[in-house]
Amino acid sequence: MQKTSQQMKILKAFMKGKHLTFNSARSISGSNYPLKRISELKQEGIPIKDEWIENTDQARYKRYWIDKEDIKELKQERE
Question: How many CB atoms lie within 10 A of CB 55?
Fold first, then answer.
């Protein structure tokens, strides 16, 4: 399946080693549904990790990233 431009923008950020949240992924991709784009990338086999973060205001949010080792492997696959 071909990736959309929104997916590509998110994937490029991940490939640079960035950690993304809903807000940062939304800002980068221009998508109102960035978590859907991340889910689609996961379904395509991109090894995106996530974890819940709790800040001092008791707000919870998820942070997403790709491990450095996985980034290396993905870059090798592209060559």
Answer: 8
